[in-house]
Amino acid sequence: MIVRSLKDVIGTDRDVKAPTWESRRLILAKEKVGFSLHDTVLYAGTETRMWYANHVEAVYCIEGHGELVNEETGETHRIEPGVMYLLDGHERHTLRAHTDVRTVCVFNPPCTGREVHDENGVYPLLTEEDA
Length: 131
Prior knowledge:
The protein is mainly β.
């Protein structure tokens, strides 16, 4: 059994920061449970372009307001507490954070904690063996 609080993660190597977001990685590949779990904040007034070519991601908004744009179709969706989205088709997407937007995200395959978005918004497919 693993019990871990957000306080245990903040300020450690599991607390990954980028110019438009911060991702606190609660469960990683090294836990060997088949997924990773992240508490992520996208900063107010920012726009983050992403494309998870190597991962499926489920996102559940728990705080804030923003807009999700499917870059492949042009569709837009309001993001607010209680809304989830699933990137089951590896869609290129942009999240515009009108306020700080806090989400809980699940990735499969699991992230190792070392991933950062490349110039296309893609996380590389890393494994614990790559460490």
